[in-house]
Every structure is written in C-alpha cells, then in structure tokens.
Amino acid sequence: MVPAKVPCLSNTPARVATASVLNLLRTVCPELVRGDGETTLVCCSLSQLIALRLSVALSGTVLSRCPACARNFANLYCNNICSPDQSLFTNVTRIVNRTTVLGKPQLAVVEYQCFYGQDFADASFASCRGVRLPATGGYAIDTMCGRYGAKLCTTQRWLDFQGDKNNGLAPLQIDFQLVPNGTQPGDAVVPLHGQAWRCDQALSAEEQPCSCQDCAESCPPVIAPSDPPPPFRLGNADGALVLCGLLFGLLALIFITALLCRCRRSKGDPTPQPVPARAASCSARLSDASHYVLARAFHRWGTLVAGHPVAVLAVAAVLAGGLSAGLVTLRLTTDPVELWSAPGSRARQEKAFYDQHFGPFFRTNQVIVTAPGRPSSRYESVVLGAKNFSGVMSEEVLRAVLELQEQLAATTAWAPVAGREVTLSDVCYAPLNPAEPGLGDCCVNSVTQYFQNNSTRLAMTATQTDGKETGTVDWHDHLIYCVNSPLSFKDITALELSCMAEYGGPVFPYIAFGGYPDLEYTEAEALIVTYSLNNFPPDDPRHEWVLSWERRFLEVVGDFQRTHGPNLSVAFMAERSLEDEINRTTGEDIPIFAISYLVVFAYIALALGEYTTWRRVLVESKVTLALGGIAVVLGAVFASMGFLALLGLPSSLVILEVVPFLVLAVGADNIFIFVQEYQQSQREPGETREQHIGRVLAQVAPSMLLCSLSEVICFLLGALSSMPAVRTFALTAAVAIAFDFLLQMSGFVALVALDARRQEAARFDLCCCCGMGKGGPAGPGARLLRPLLRRYYTPLLLHRLARPVVVRGARPLWSCRPRTGGDALGEEGDGHRGALADGGWVPPQDSYMLQYFAALNQYLAVGVPTYFVTTGGYNFSSPNGTNGICSSAGCAADSLTHTIHFLPALPLPRSYLAIPATSWVDDFLDWLNPTSRCCRIHQFGNLTGKFCPSTNDLSCLGGRCLNTTRRPTVEEFERFLPWFLHDRPTLQCAKGGCPSMGPVRVPVQGCPAGVGAGARCLCQGASAAVTLPGRVTYVYYEQYLTVVAEGVITLALCLVPTFCVSFLLLGMDLRSSAATLVTIAMILVDTVGAMALWDIPYNAVALINLVAAVGISVEFVSHVTCAFAHSTQPGRVARAAEATVNMGSKVVAGVAMTNLPGIVVLAFAKAQLIQIFFFRLNLIITLVGLAHGLIFLPVLLSYVGKTPWGCVGTG
C-alpha cells in the first residue's frame, strides 16, 4: 500500500549528521539531536529520514491528538533507523542480494531482531493504549494491533504487528524482543532503554499533555451526578403503599366506630322521639329554585319541539349536515411526532433545528438473518488460531446474503409520479461520494462487505506459512482478522485482502453481527444487513423515489424469505414499513369496528322497545327511533369533526376510534333515560301528547344537562394538555358532546314525538304506512331489569348488614402501579418497538414487523444514534470556541466532547453510551497537524496557494498549512475549513472531512428513554454555548419525562368541573357533589390499578382513554346522584333505593349494556393497539364504572347523602 524501501546492510560507524539531515532530524526525531546538534551522530541517510518522516506522518494522523504517544511511537522507529547505538540493540537475521538501478550490488536487510527494555516498551505502549480514534468511537490501538484489537492488545502484540511485513505498511520483518529489567540477552546486545513520555506529560512548555479522552491519567476525578432520592420505604415495604394502607385502615376504623356508636344509641333508645322538622336552608331553597327553573324551561322547550317535530328535524339536519361538510377539509395526522410531541417541547424544537440545518435523518432498511438449527463448527487457522463459527457463519449462508445484496443492487423501482425507474444509487446514502454516487458508493453495512461484496474474494484461498506450520487460508481467516481490525486496508494473511467496505468506510462488527457472546463475533447468531438511504422532505420529488425503492426492497426481501424459509429465518423492515402496516391493519380492522357498532346499534334498537303482547311487537318496536337516535349521535360526531376541521384542527386515527365510542356511550345513555322515562310515565288527565313529552323532558333533562355540561367542561380543561393528540381528542370530545346534547334536545325529542304519534295510531315500526287499527296496549310492557333491581338487588345492597361490607370492601387498587412505556423500554431494551408503542401503534400478530422487532430485541447490540448539536451563533473559529468543543490535547477540560466522554465512565444506569462521541473539530485539528500529510498547499505551478491533496507529493514539499502544532487563527480557520470538508480520506490522510459533514452519530448500547434526560443534564455543564442532545426517538420518549405529571394534572382538571357543576346544579348540595367526585376518582384509581393487573402500559394512548373514562364515569355516577338529590323519599336509604331502581336500570341499559357488546367484538381485532387500549382498557372502564355506580355510590349516598328538609329521622 506504500512503497517498500528496505535498508542496506552497513557496518560502518555512525556519521555526523549533515545540515540537511540535522534540520529534518529536529523535526522527526528531536530526541536524537545531541546538544547544539554539531556533534549529533546518526546511522541513517537523508533519503531514509525522508521515508521515516512519511511513515511517522501516517501514524501521526491518528496519534497526533496525544503528543506523548505520537512522540514515543516515532521514537521507536527513530532509534531503529537513525540511532548511533543501533548496532547495540539490533541484530540482522536475514539479508538478500540486490542490484541498484546503477548496477551496483548491495546487501538488503529484509529481517532483523530488535531488543527493547521491558520498561521502555511498556511505557511507550501505555502512553498510546488510551488514544481514541474519534471517527470510529474506538481506540487507535485497534488499527495498530492486528487481529487482537484494543481489548486483547499487549506491548508485545503491538510491536509484533508493527514489525509484521504482512500488515501492508512494514517494508521488512522486525522481530521485537522485550528484555526483562536486570537481564542481559548476551552476545554483546544492550537492550534499548530510551525515554518514554507519559501521556499526562507535556513535551515542552509550549505544548499540552494528552487530553482526558486519550489519557486516563489526565482526567480529573469523575464526579457522578447526584443520585435521585431513594424510594420512600418503611422497612422493606413501599412507604407510599404502607401509608395508603394505614390511611385506609384509619378511615375504616372511623367508619366502624361511628357505625357502632350509632347502633348503641339505637339500642339504648329503641323508641326514638320524632325530630322536629327544620326549615329549609338557603342552599335547599336554591336547589329547589334552580331545579324548578330548569324543569320549567325544558318543559316549555319539549312541548314546543314536540308540537313542530318536522321543522325542528329539518333545522337540526341542515345544521348538522352543514357542519359535517367540513370533513372534506379534514387532515389526518399519522406522524407520531405530530401526535405525541408538543410543538413547543424541547425535543420537538431540537428536532426542527436539526432537520433545518442537517436535513432529515437518513432512512434505515434492515435485514436480520439467522440459521436456527444449523450446527456450529470449529476452524483451525494457521495464522490466527482456533475459532468457533456459529451455524449462520457458514459459506452457504454468506453466499445467500451476498446473493440478496446483489439482487437489491440490481433491482429498480418505478416511481409513477416522477415517471422514471429508481435505482439504489439514486436514493442511497453515499458518504464518500454524495454528488454522483454509484452502486459501490452506497453505505451498506454487512458481513460480506469485508469482502467488498465480491463473491470471487469470498471464494479465495491461499497457502500460508506461519513459522514451521503451513496451511491454507480462506474467508474464515480474513473474517477473523477483520472483526478485530475493521479499519485495516490489508489483512496479515496470504490473501492480502482489505477489510474496508466497498464504499470505502469500515464495517464495525457490532453493526454487522448480532447475538454474539463477549465480543466473539464469529459465534454470532445473526447476520445484519443495513441499508442507509437518504431522507427527503415530503414535498421533495425524491421522497417518492425512496418510497418506491423501499417498496421494491420489501418485495425482494419477502421473496428471499420465502425462498430460503426452510433453512434460514429472515426478519426485515424498511423505513416505510410502519406507515404501511398502520394502513394495512387499519383497513383490516375497519370491519371489526363496523361489526362492533352494528352490535351496539342492534342492541339499542331492540332494547328501546317496551312490549306488551306478541301481536303489538311491530307497533311497540323502537327500531326507527333507535336508528334516529344513533343518527343524532353520529351527526354530533361528524358535525364536531367537521367544525374543528373548518377551524384548521387536524385529527388522527386514535380520535376517530375513541370519540364515536365515547359519544355513543353518552348519547345512548340519554336516549334510554328519556325513552324509558316516557314509557313509564302516564299521561295526566287533560294533558296533550306534546305536553306529556315536555313534562317528561323536564324530569330527565336537568340530569342530562348536569352530565353533559360536566363532560364538556371536563374535556375543555383536558384540552390544556401539552400533548397534541390529547389536546385534539379533548377538544373533539367536548364539541361532540355539546353538539350531541343540543341535537338530542331538539332532533331526538322531535323523533320521540313522531314515534309517539305513530304508536298511538298503532302504525308499524319501519313501515308506518301499515298498522293494526286503533286500540292501545292492554297494560304496561314487560320489564326485566327494573323489577329485578327493585325486588332483589336494592334490598340486598342496602341491607343494614350489607352496607358496611360494601364500604369496607371498597378498597381501591392503589397497590397496583401500571408500568409506563419507559419502564417497558428499560426492561426490554427495545427502543424501536417502544417508539412505535409511543406513537400509538403496536404491530399485529400477523405482521412481519413483529418478527423483526423480536429479532431486533434479541440480537442487535447497538441502539439508535445519539448526537449533540451546537446551536447557531457559536464561534468555532476562535481558539476558545475550538477548545470548547474538541477533546484532543490543549482542549478545555469542560469542553463538550470531554463532557460527553465522562458519560461511559459513569456507573449504569446513569449512562448508556457505549462509546464517546466524535466531533468534526477533533478531526479538523488532526487534519491541520503539521506532522501529518493532510493539510498542505501547492508551492509552485498553476495551483500555487491552493489545497494540495495528500496523494500529491511533488508540488507540496514544505507546503504545510501550519508549521507548528497550534490552534488556527480565525483567518486560517475560515480558509482551511472548506478544504477539510471536501477532502476525501485516503491511506495517507485518514482525517479527510468529506463524510463528516453531518452531525455526530454515536452507537448507543441498549438505549432507554432515560438517556435523553441524562444527556440534557450533562450538556448543561459543557463549555459550549448551547447544545441540543438528541436521538431519533427523543420526540417519542420525551413524553415519559412528563406523562405521569401530565396525566395527574389533566385528570385532576377533568374532575374539577364534575364537582363544580354538580354543586351548582344540585343547589350547592356539598354532600352529593362530594360523593360524585369521590366515586369518579375511585373509578379512575381502580382503572389505573387494573391496568397493571392486565399488563396495559401507561402512555399517551392510555391517557386519552383515561380522559374518556372521566366522561363515561360521569354517566355512571351523576345520573344516580341527581336522582338521589331530587328524590322525595323520607330518608337516605329510601332515597338511595329509589335512585338505584329508577336511574340505575337506565344506566345499566344505556351505558353498560351499550358499551359491552361493542367492546367484546373488539377483542377479535388484529391490531394489538385495539386489543390492548380499546378492548382491555374500555372493558375495565365499563365494568369498574358500573360497579362503582351501582354498588358503591348508592351505599355511600345512604350514609352521607343529604336528608330532605322537614323529614322525620334519617333513614
């Protein structure tokens, strides 16, 4: 790879250095210069010194960031080549005859021994073993220790690799012999004991020691962030749980004590004296007055609507239809970022800043190949020793993977809008040739890239001799070498193959392999192929190109999976897979939702009727009225969505699925309450049908108003949430419930009037043109639920022995804490799947992505990238600005990169960074270093003063950009930076900045949500002006920083109006309002506890359902409370019994029995999102709400409810 020039054998004494040699010696080997330099002796010529400078420059590219290491490494070769004492510690072991170009015979040295003192060699190695290679996140030793890498490298192995002529750089074989201290090897050999600089030493007063990132001895003590406060515990138990238990026990003790005292008083005075009736208080009079005003207003309104039903229906239909027309402007938001991340949130702002300045993050397409059942094997390498190879690491599997990549490279996809064929090179991420990429320039990471995706190289074999052993080397040997030295341009086997990928970059084994134990990559259980594609904004025509190619990618890999299915397990995904699967599952589950709503509609249609005889079934049926009521509910939903769409508010699939369910529950409850009350009410003498409808409406409408107003205000307050999806849902629900109440008070009342007119005329339902003639029903219709509640349920529930048991047993499920999505991610380490769940979607059981996520979680050891971006206005060009970012020698101790470097040093779980960050500033400074060949200037010719690449020699002699190691001035910074950004890395200069024009991208090991908060806290201590730590999934994970507090605040805000509206509309009845608030709060607490028992994670989707649960709970609770407050029974127990019988039957029929059939149908949906967050959670909400509304609330009211003024006793 570099010209191989070997020295000639010479036994002459050392010579006095000439002026030209001395000048160059001061630059390359300053330790060999004696005194003033006039008496300096050397054993090398000027040409040898020039070649040595070239060799030192190559190593200086990666070692110059640590001056002590670079000097020590250069001194090794300076002593070997130029030391005047060379003959004392070297021993030539092999020479060959050669003839010069002038025909002069010479003896060329091709192998020699070199004796070093153990201390000197160890000190030199110690100064270099911590030097970082920022471009890879690894160590420079990784490139200088061959197959051993940094982890297994020792002083001897390090030197052996330098002296191995097969490493592509050494011109001859050097056998390094390390002599222990105090021993002599004999034969007049004196081991070299030179000076070795420690990495924390400065070479001179003008220079700096190695930085903390490259030298652990230079690091200040790492002060870990303060630990979070320990969890509150009492002994070994959860402290909060113990306190809740004690509080519950105290309340139970107070309740039992009060009950016993009351019982003792009743036994001591078995004939209590009547309590004189008390005058009604102000609040009681206000309650009666408010109820009278509302009842009278609704009575007049109902009578008016019932008298003009057709006109009212026409107006309601026109208004609802007009607002529903706004649906044509409806925008559905499917981007999880837009759904769950607030526009003003920090993560959202950081993402917007990143996208604006760097463009969207590149797209990932990935294939994970495993070979279950295939046996492993053991390979005996002549050069590298024995290694185990897993079943997937076989030539057959490698060729299959290579075949897949060749198909993908050759495939084309049709982009219909652009009207052209799209190839991989049109859309791939090509870091080294972004302007005009070819197929070979595309960034594809896979195991076959160690062979440059060339089947011929994969099949190569060669005869290899290692010492006395001779054998054959093949792809096994090359692979073993490359996984330990991925940056090598030439392996040490006879194959002499490069480890670099076809596109020119390295393939790090932790990206190409999965499921390996302890860095034993050859034992990996999975091969990972990753295609990185450019990402474009949606309005860019190239966005269609990349979508089209990804569609073709999925087809090709799908065919590969079916072809190799018997032998290989293939999991895959494309960047577009998420959206594709959402659309597919949504379409497939539409019939499930349709069936769910049809079941609900059928139940309402059948349950509304009250049947007296079989012959009157067609007359007494309420199918038409039920369909009209459903139309009213759907009209309210469509009108609300259309109204908000006209205002520019977008919607989402979650809203489309939840809001109809919520409004249907509220609307159906009101339908049953109104219709059943009308059926059970008898018309008074002289009362017209219209007046009868008005009177019934006056009886039930205040309760409907109480519930609807509570829910509307509740959801309006819920709209204060910062999460866009929660805010949009709350606004849509509030407007929909408001419209539903208005339409029911108008359109549905008109429908009831028309249906009553039809039934009185004995006309058939669904066919009003036909009938059975005049004649009313023989008596009241058959009823099941109400008699059951009156005869059996209520007496049992309110029995004097049962009530204490109910109160004592009403223990909330506060002992169960649901896991948040962040908890799940921390347990599973599955960031990608967690991000999807955060985005409101979990793949169904039949999705190919489920297999991919399982393989990703099991095999992939690298998480998504983390990057740190400085905001605009930071001055990089000043020395202080440069030092505030970089991490090499001379950089600020609190620089951004130094600060990030401390993360992996912190104990888990504070940090999950696998390797330190890389900064372009560090590469730029290394590129400017005068000891390298990177930054040079043409000295003559047409290009004088222009940039001279490292591959050009003649016109660049002496044309270094900087003559000394220092920070560039502002003018130099601005002049040289464009050169750096356009310089492609080469073997002579590996620090070219062409592929580094993007952000910092650092592989992260098993990233949970918490790493974002830690990165933010860390950056606050960095010296850079402002930093924006970010990951692709921060916008999803950010919700877990606030979702608990957000949920508590949102639900608390939703509870406030239920109490306030109840307090006002019930005439300041504090007891009944408090009972309502307590019961709804218990429903929420028990729902959250049940979520933990049924493995329902708490995230933004769950929060939306919990906000909806408040609205449904109001239906279960407020109607019963309102009926209790307006009951005229003499005591609390009697009032609770009447409310339970009269209103409980309607709540069961209207809310519980309306929801349950539809919810049960959702259990058959394919999408796990629907199964978890709609079937499970809504079933919990309905059952818990029903239990509290019909069991706990009546008993609570029987104890704490207000007694009517003027009554005797308390019941």
From TrEMBL:
The chemistry this enzyme catalyses reads: cholesterol(in) = cholesterol(out)
- Look up and give the membrane topology term: Multi-pass membrane protein
Q: Which UniProt keywords apply?
A: Disulfide bond, Glycoprotein, Membrane, Signal, Transmembrane, Transmembrane helix, Transport
Q: Where does it mainly reside? A: membrane
One Gene Ontology term of the molecular function aspect: cholesterol binding
Q: Where are the transmembrane segments?
A: 240-261, 310-330, 590-611, 623-647, 653-675, 696-723, 729-754, 1040-1068, 1074-1094, 1101-1127, 1147-1165, 1177-1200
GO biological processes? cholesterol homeostasis; cholesterol transport; intestinal cholesterol absorption; lipid metabolic process
Record has Kinase as a keyword: no
Matches recorded under InterPro entries: HMGCR/SNAP/NPC1-like_SSD (IPR053958), NPC1_MLD (IPR053956), NPC1_N (IPR032190), SSD (IPR000731)
Pfam families assigned: NPC1_MLD (PF22314), NPC1_N (PF16414), Sterol-sensing (PF12349)
The protein's matches in Gene3D superfamilies, at most eight in alphabetical order, are given as:
Multidrug efflux transporter AcrB transmembrane domain
Instruction: Provide the protein's localization.
Output: Membrane
Q: Which domain of life is it from?
A: Eukaryota
According to the entry, every stretch annotated as the SSD domain falls at 589-754
**An annotated GO cellular component:** endomembrane system
Which residue positions does the secretion signal occupy? none
Specify whether Protease is a keyword of the entry.
no
Similarity annotation:
Belongs to the patched family.
Q: What is this protein called?
A: NPC1 like intracellular cholesterol transporter 1
Organism of origin is: Strix occidentalis caurina (northern spotted owl)
